[in-house]
Amino acid sequence: NDTSKLPMLQFKLSVPSGNENVKVNSVKLTASGSADDASAISAVRLILDSNGNGLYDIGETVLAGPSTYSADNGILTMILGTPRTISIGNSENWLVVYNLSGTASFGQTLAVSIDSNTAISAVGATSGFTFTPSGAPVAGNTKTISDISANVTSGIAPLQVEFASQFGTGGTVVQYEWDFDYDGVTFRPDFVSNLTGDANFTYEMAGTYTARLRVTYADGTVIEREITIIVSPRSDAPTIIEVFPSATIGPAPLTVTFTITAEPGIGKIEAYFWDFDGDEVIDFTSTTTNT
């Protein structure tokens, strides 16, 4: 609800061959959703997404803004401080990024779109003739205001996530607990605090995770919330070729030695993590041997 750098809309601008370089002057945005855009959004920025990952990263260029909506469900023209020239045969990814003020209510929504081709003002860099893009309308994300949030909900391993809680403080909450890889059955807190529900966690391995927050109030009330985190493998991640167990059957207690064969990809394998009972909890880690 008070998130900064919230990506709301990603779109690509391309200049096909056979044209001239194109200069973009402004982009007109149309807001929608049940929250009051004029008060719930403290800043709107237009960002050049230089690495195309859909996030506003440190060092990326602010093309326009910060600006604000003057009315709920309003129209905002983002005028570029310096017109952006896109060369023939090239394309760029742009982002619309919101800062939220924290005034929206739980369950309210925010959305933004580029409703028509004429919403993007562009001219030929040499001729000055008006260019009308194609591809509109383009709809962005619908943000539902929650009482927990994460600065990122997807990315490549290792993925560092900053979790935040908007639940009451000042004595009303006696304990915050986070289970960052909740299995849907047993709540195992990885983070416990009586001061804050804000916490950081790094997901080292690819997978789909449920992060679950449990908040306990002074009167005994317990509230739980969840958020899904999707972690993708690195393109240069090691590939497991085969796992060799020394035994697959035998009387208890059964001692088994596991040996793994893996291709390191780019670089080298730094560590081996073993989960012997499939409960998604690491039981053994080795940085020196594959056994």
Automatic annotation (TrEMBL):
<dbReference type="Pfam" id="PF00801">
    <property type="entry name" value="PKD"/>
</dbReference>
<dbReference type="InterPro" id="IPR013783">
    <property type="entry name" value="Ig-like_fold"/>
</dbReference>
<dbReference type="InterPro" id="IPR035986">
    <property type="entry name" value="PKD_dom_sf"/>
</dbReference>
<protein>
    <recommendedName>
        <fullName>PKD domain-containing protein</fullName>
    </recommendedName>
</protein>
<dbReference type="InterPro" id="IPR000601">
    <property type="entry name" value="PKD_dom"/>
</dbReference>
<feature type="domain" description="PKD">
    <location>
        <begin position="157"/>
        <end position="220"/>
    </location>
</feature>
